[in-house]
Amino acid sequence: MSRAPLGVPPLTDGVVLLRPMRPADAAAVARAGDDPEVARWTPFPAPFTEADARAWIEGQERAGTIDLVVTDRDDDSEVLGWVGLHDADLTQRRAELGIWLAAASRGRGVGRRAISLLTDWGFRELGLLRIAALCLSGNTVGRRAMQAAGFVPEGVLRAYEDVKGVRHDTAILGMVHPELRD
């Protein structure tokens, strides 16, 4: 397995901006991530403190994943959420996408925009042919955002994910490179 490179330039569609996380983002990430809905669908503790955010950012840097904060194009200091690619296997040309959004960012197309920017970049710059997204089955908002960005439901992995000691069924959605689509 070859890992994905960490050098991701800022990506924008003119409305949202995706940029690499920085240690200085810890307070803004904590504000955005300290949300009951984020805690419900992720391993984040509740409350999600600045120290938690700092540890998460440092852990992501060590993991060699592609982790980007989602911000407003005109104000990159306010974090609207996070989007990333992980478990990238450049030999097999695939990766998994993850995303969470702050409460104020939901329902405004921010998730769809962020997902589209990162998947387009992954196909174009990393040469990926497939990107999967795993979403706890009860997270209908997350699944809808992924489908709005072009992900196709592929099935359910039963009792797949443990979040805070509870096993959850997990929906798997997929997107393939445009040249491979039916």
Automatic annotation (TrEMBL):
GO terms for cellular component: cytoplasm. Residues 16-169 form the N-acetyltransferase domain. One of its GO terms (molecular function) is protein N-terminal-serine acetyltransferase activity. It holds the Pfam family Acetyltransf_3. InterPro entries: Acyl_CoA_acyltransferase, GNAT_dom, Ribosomal_N-acetyltransferase. CDD domains: NAT_SF (cd04301). This is N-acetyltransferase domain-containing protein. It comes from Streptomyces dysideae.
